[in-house]
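Methods — Computational structure assignment.
A single polypeptide chain was analysed. Its primary sequence is given first, followed by the predicted tertiary structure written as structure tokens.
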Amino acid sequence: MKAVMKREMKNYLKQPFFWIGVLIVFAGVFQTLGPYLKISYVTSDEEIAAMRERTQSYDDYVPEADTFDGYIPASEEERRAVWEQKIYETLVSGFELEPSEAEAVVEKVHEMEVSEACAYLEETFQWGYVIYDYTDAAYRRATKEEINAYLDSQMERKPFSYYFSRKFADFAGLWMGFFAAIVLAALFWQDTRKHTYELLHTKPVRAGSYVMGKTAGGFGVCLLTLAILNVGFWALCRIAMRSSGFEVRIQDFLYATCVYILPNMLMIVCVYGVISLLFKNPLPAVPFLLLYIVYSNMGRRNEEGVFGYYGRPLAIMVRFPGPFFDTTPPPMVIQNQCFLLLASAVLILACVQLWKRRRT
């Protein structure tokens, strides 16, 4: 097993295409995460003016924005006020109610919970998806003092690296998925060629040792790439946050990588193993894995009809959409990652059986 694993890793390390792939992944993740490295306290009115000029096409209330855009989460009272104003305007202009009638409806809605008010408006006016006007007012423009106070409150809760590591897991996991789907095609390429495949089955190597060695070799390649990404972005965070004094911990990056990315990489390696041994060719695994990534990255609507990313069974992507300080893992994500580990173990056993059958 160790000999097979070492051979595979050495084969990758001496190939230029592997290192080119690592550079592409690093550059792609950096391009996406770069703006988050600029998060800091606002020290002058000129910075606020620059933010507003950059986001002049935005409304005062928007469904999603970040602190580097000059926005902070709106309070419940602010969201309700904006929402009820939009309800009033729509009732007058869209449903052609008299202003007094629209005011009466808004007063009635004001006493209800959001879900109850949505059900009432849908039943009374056949007004579907009125919840969108509420979600569209989630963030508001802020002053310099409000942004700095908001940053203080978030840093008191968790260190900067806690939030950054989630965005890192999001985009590094996405790039690594495509990286592994393409680069790992070479893992079984030589071994599944006709003469090599037949020769391997005459060697006194156990099926378990061979399959585990190949799996460990492919997983080790992904692990090495992620180690480079972890160290690189941890160092970038340390440098970028030096002036702000925000805390940056390497353990936040390691936790996010181990929980949200590594099980996905193991699953990709195991899928390659099964398809390569089943078809005696690793290439059919490439389109399958690309479709698997698309499936894992698809959003859906929740019970309230709001579209978003809520995770899918056995997904090999863990996404953290939303503003920097408001990311949350998809529901059941820990259970799903455990299922991936279990499924990977099943696929490894399937690979062993396939290898044994080919030998006989």
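Note: The chain has a mean pLDDT of 88.
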